[in-house]
Amino acid sequence: MAYNEHAACPCGSKKSYKNCCKIFHEGKYPQTAVELMKSRFSAFVVGNIDYIISTTHEDNIEYSENKSKWREDLQNVISSNDFYSLEILDFIDGKEESYVTFKVGIKQRGLDVSFTEKSKFLKIDGKWLYRSGEFLDD
Length: 138
Prior knowledge:
- By secondary structure, the protein is of the alpha+beta class.
- It is about 30% helix and about 35% strand.
- It has one domain (about 15-135): Nuclear Transport Factor 2, Chain: A (Roll), CATH 3.10.450.50.
- Strands 1, 2, 3, 4 and 5 form a five-stranded antiparallel beta sheet that branches.
- The radius of gyration is 14 Å and the shape is globular.
- It starts with about 20 loop residues before the first helix and ends with a strand.
């Protein structure tokens, strides 16, 4: 199912998806780790698996050389979860390494499985990539 580009962007920016995260999903590079975080969350909402894969650092635990299996795993995550909110709690900006702490709202078969995470992002060849995340107690 295609996401309505005129609907509010899933990242919570109050802009339309077309004027927010869609530009990153179509090839513009996020300038900050926060932009990458928000656009990755939106990619889970709209089902843009290729964007999720292309913005994941190769040292990430989820990273796989077997892209078809990885795509299948991501599709299962996307189809079995309702990603409904994102709240940025903290941002530590750096030139090559940044941290974003966020709370993501997720429901899985009606159960709230929301979590808070502190994510590490690395800038490699001018592009921000998601390196790792640590779950935090709410």
